[in-house]
Amino acid sequence: MASENQQLHFILVPLMSSSHIIPLTDFAKLLARQGQDVTIITTPLNAIRLNPIIQRAIKSNLKVQLIPLRFPCQEAGLPEGCENLDELTSPDLTKHFFVASGMLQEPLEKVLAKLVPRPTCIVSTNAIPWTHEIAQKFGIPMYVFHTISCFTLVCSHSINHSKILETVNSDYESVLLPDMPHKIEFKNSQLPDMMRKNSSESKNMLDKVKEAENSAQGVVVNSFEELEPSYVEKCKNMMKNVWCIGPVSQCNKEMLDKFERGNKASIDENDCLKWLDSVKPKSVIYACFGSVSHISPTQSIEIGLGLEASNRPFIWIISDRDYSIEVKKWLEDDTFEERIKGRGLIIRGWAPQVLILSHSSIGGFLTHCGWNSTLEAVCAGVPMITWPMFAEQFYNEKFVVHVLRIGVRIGVEGVLESGEDAHDRVLVKGEQVKKAIDQLMDEGEEGEERRKRAREVGDMAKGTTEAGGSSYSNTKLLIQDVIKWRMHQ
Ligand code: UDP
Question: Is the domain of 173 the same as that of 319?
Fold first, then answer.
């Protein structure tokens, strides 16, 4: 436990999106296990999702608490109850969501002014640029928590600084990134919207994020040093005080913590485990596309047909967003569910992803390459079929397929444009899904080598967040940095 002068109070502020809230909540537990007080700022509806995990953490004597702030939906032009990015009914509302998020600054300042013990530092995820103003007002340091890898940070830095994309004539021409530890090529079409579209709006947002990052006392990355040593090194040269503290999902040791992580699971725990236990080890394809992707009905049906044609056991997550009337009707009218009976499990809604991925029956993960999902598969030693869709997901695909060499590509070439029918314009057919599954599950030399490497990176991840592990030590360094900062005030 921390001695009194080392007793700190961390304020964690995530963007209200599952891919930020979930890892920051895990990190809260890791900090609390090192004896620190931790407060997570949230909103009433997100607090309902997090509460079971937090209550269990409190019962095990961790000093963690949630403070819900009212999310100003109405004022920002959002439908009532739209407190998480996964609740957005249209991409046009994203702008409003960020406006609402910015409006939390004032209420948060009021809460912090009265908080006991007094806050000693703020850790906020990369999409919350305004916390550095709060930190300045309170005279405490602010740290940025990156929900992306060092590889992604280095690639974006290289693309921005070399201005390499200015030399290309088409969206689909590949460019080689200069000065990288591996041969890394990108196409303009694969870059996040923010980087491709030179709109003043995205420039403004990027500038604010950059300004916050520059004024931060340090940067915390949900990754681990053994996974990407040369990119961690490069990050350390690019920024001051970089600490890899992950994979944070490893803090979930108990079955219930894995099961209830992030949201209420849409399957009974025992049914899920019974199904997983009933299939052969390393045989199941797990297909899940994160917390915010929208998969069109036509695309969903092709995914279903591909999984069916693969002739292998599978778990297919159809999120509430994608469980449309068309998909429901297809599942009911077609004989799909009958045909896959006993072999395929469909979860409609939220999946207990970490629990599923860490089960010995999982043989491959069909993923949209969100960084959290990627890292969770890495921890489980599960090879991936990569199907990036937007944001930094193409960087993650590159990392999985070309650097770690534990994945096969489904073969998409560019970020999805916005709009309901985005998938239909670049439809991945069922045969393509089947082909990628066959390739991943191939029992020949290539497949075996890939599985071996996946097991090896999984082994590397083990213990990193436990006493003696690199991420545990880095979390300690972060704590010491706050203590040092306080002593010099
Ligand atoms: N997740 C989950 N169940 C689901 C969907 C997502 O537990 O049904 C979790 C997943 O384990 C990960 C997070 O939600 O921790 C998604 O983050 P990621 O960065 O992979 O993707 P994003 O949601 O940002 O697209």
Answer: no
Name which of 190-194, 363-367, 406-410, 438-442 the model is least confident about: 190-194
Are 11 and 39 a contacting pair, CB within 8 Å? yes
Which tokens belong to 372?
A: 């959290």
Cα 373 to averaged position of ligand 1 atoms, centre (Å): 6
Question: Per the structure, how many domains does the chain have?
Answer: 2
Is the shortest distance between the CB of 130 and ligand 1 below 6 Å? no
Q: Is the ipTM of this complex over 0.90?
A: yes
Question: Is residue 2 scored above 60 in pLDDT?
Answer: no
What does each C-alpha distance from 359 to 107, 277, 282, 400 come to in angstroms?
42, 8, 9, 21
Give the list of residues 6+ apart from residue 324 with CB closer than 8 angstroms, or none.
297, 300
- 267-277 pLDDT per residue, tens: 999 999 999 99
Ligand 1 mean position, distance from CA 368 (Å): 10
Nearest atom, ligand 1, residue 357 CA? 11
Domain with 354 in it: 262-461
| Whether residues 468 and 437 fall in one domain | no
Quote the pTM value.
0.96
